[in-house]
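Hello everyone,

My group is preparing for a crystallization screen and wants a predicted model to guide construct design. The compound we'll soak is fe (ii) ion. Before spending weeks at the bench, it would help to have a computed complex in hand. I've included the protein sequence and the ligand's SMILES below. Output in structure-token form would be ideal because that's what our pipeline reads.
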Amino acid sequence: MPAPPAFRGSGFFIPSVWAKRRAGKAGLASTPKSEYGCVPDLLQARTVMPALSDFTSIAGDIAAQGYAVRPRRAMQTLFPPPALAEWERFAASWNDLGTDTYMADGGRYRRRRFAAFRMSGLAVARKPHQPHYQSRDYNPLNGGVVRWFDPVRDEIAVHPVLLSLLDLCGHVFGTIAKPPAHDWHVEMHQFRIEASSGVAGQPTPEGLHRDGVEWVCVMLVNRINVSSGVTRIFGHGQSLGSFTLTDPLDAVFLDDMRVMHGVTPIAPLDGARSAFRDVLVLTFREDDPAPQ
Ligand SMILES: [Fe+2]
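Reply:
Good plan to model first. Here are the tokens for the complex, ready for your pipeline.
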């Protein structure tokens, strides 16, 4: 059985992912699966750490201004090459999202899947599928309703891109959380916002908002035939900045307790072709204590 690809450069890889792959190729019995078939406990043992400065620079920006933006060229140094090598498979999963039928504005321009995890140190465990809920305090448009979305597919819930980003976020947010949370409740959202000629797609139909958590990471997965979609950050009633996530891996990290965020509507550049914006959103809040 060949060894996992040698790691080069900054970053780290997740041996459990490679161990599972080797077991699969060898025809060995798979790890017991949960309700949705995902491995219930993905222990991540790291062999090579990203540079401490990578975490501290992101955490420093968040501490200084409430958010941190990192372009593709910076983000790609934070993922292990074996994970990035499987990026296309990860991104392609956004082609298989169900329509969000809860849109109070009547729109049918949003597709999504949802998953919840518990992060305890370096361990990530997927929780049983559950609804997404926001109070109307945070989402006056679609909040106050228990919303069930299709679950993130098993292979994406254990994809090395996702696990690497979870690990990165855990380190960054764990660095600046006060007091540091020992366990995180993490929610994962796969979003596709579609636009067509005459019908704009609204990435954040609720306008400027907080997600009602502690920390948020938004990473662009794809942006096809789209204009606008400008991310705006506000704090204390003032604009703190605006930027556009244009390339896959472009990301913003948010202190959700401190700043509000919103994204302007998108429109197609060419009305004769499909237009969409795909993002991955991860939200973090301190989890409830584990049952004894
Ligand atoms: Fe949001």
